[in-house]
Write a structure and sequence with these properties.
The protein is built from 3 helices and 2 strands; from the N terminus they run αααββ. It has about 80 residues and is of the alpha+beta class. β1 and β2 form a beta hairpin. α1 crosses α2. This is UDP-glycosyltransferase 85A8.
């Protein structure tokens, strides 16, 4: 939903009512709730973001400790793979 630069009180009022009570507003609220659930799942322990970050830290520490050569490869997030 957008409001043009030539804003009229009636148009703003109609958009606010649509967001609060209308179908479009309800759809946006449901979508926001879905995104919230997905974000919580991804960042929770054993979620995809958690696992990717854990692997990144583990591999970075191994590099710092002088492990053998590693190469960066994009595969389900950032991963370092042994060459």
């Amino acid at each position: 939903m957008e409001v043009s630069y030539d804003v009229k009180h009636n148009k703003v009022e109609a958009l606010v009512k649509e967001m609060i009570k209308g179908n479009k507003g309800n759809q946006m609220k449901m979508q926001a709730k879905e995104w919230k659930k997905k974000a919580i799942k991804a960042t929770d322990v054993r979620g995809s973001c958690y696992d990717n970050f854990h692997s990144f830290i583990k591999d970075t520490l191994q590099l710092k400790m002088g492990s053998s050569k590693y190469e960066c490869k994009a595969r389900k997030g950032l991963r370092l793979e042994h060459v």
